[in-house]
Amino acid sequence: MGIGINQLVDYYGRAPVSFFNIFAPSIPPGGRQLDWQTSKNGAGLVFPLSGSSRYTLNGTPYLLEPGVVLHAGPDTPVSKEVLGDVYWQYALIHYQIPKEDAAGFPLYHEHFLINTGIDTKLVDLIGQLRQSCAAPDGMAALKSKVLFMSLIEEMLISAKRQLHDENAELMVQAVEYIRQNYADPISVEKIAAHFGVNRRRFAYLFERHTGMSPIVYLTACRIRRSKELLRTCACPIVQVAECVGYTDSFYFSRLFKKQTGVSPTEFRTRVRENPWGM
């Protein structure tokens, strides 16, 4: 079902929506859930964080990966399947409309995709929302309500930006290029040249589109993949570094610790002791 951005703005602007929970699972490659139902208590928004997955809602398939958001109405048949060899990580945010009002807002019951592009502000708001929900006090609950509406606003702003940015498609291709080639010895200069754009211009467009510089995004892809390798294989650190594009394992280890707060070896040890904690 195709939904226009103006319809979404009107819907979330007028509907008496209220946030009620957030989950952020991490599902390994090959994970599947068949013949499930979405929550009976409210609609959900699925924000992909890494990896990709196929959701089938009432017979309609959707390919989910970072850059899109899936809306699913309450009590809808759903099946899920993780695609590829990367962990599927996402945030599922549920919200409600009072039963007496729901009939006046048909989008509440529908399933559809929202194209937001890569937006790091969305990821940051999701992280803040998770933290506030973990706190038991009333002030945290109030903050959660505010953060939820900020998240909806940013989602709609990002979706609107996709429609008006003539360079959006080029940057979508650039993001995908980095995701596919992060293990190679690529640089910002090489990526910009691949797309026929001046380096400075490319960096400007990329950051405007994604909220981060190309090198920061490249590093994030490499660190995320290195975490998956440290979780799932016993190969030496030097081999992990090479698999994600770093020929100098000492540099990789320093960078990994800077990004995560722990060394690759310590990360692997913690994962073994508590596989769901990292």
Automatic annotation (TrEMBL):
Residues 172-270 form the HTH araC/xylS-type domain. SUPFAM superfamilies: Homeodomain-like, Regulatory protein AraC. SMART domains: HTH_ARAC. Keywords: DNA-binding, Transcription, Transcription regulation. InterPro entries: Homeodomain-like_sf, HTH-like, HTH_AraC, HTH_AraC-typ_CS, Tscrpt_reg_AraC-type_HTH. Pfam families: HTH_18 (PF12833). PROSITE patterns: HTH_ARAC_FAMILY_1, HTH_ARAC_FAMILY_2. It comes from the Bacteria. One of its GO terms (molecular function) is DNA-binding transcription factor activity. This is Transcriptional regulator, AraC family. It comes from Sporobacter termitidis DSM 10068.
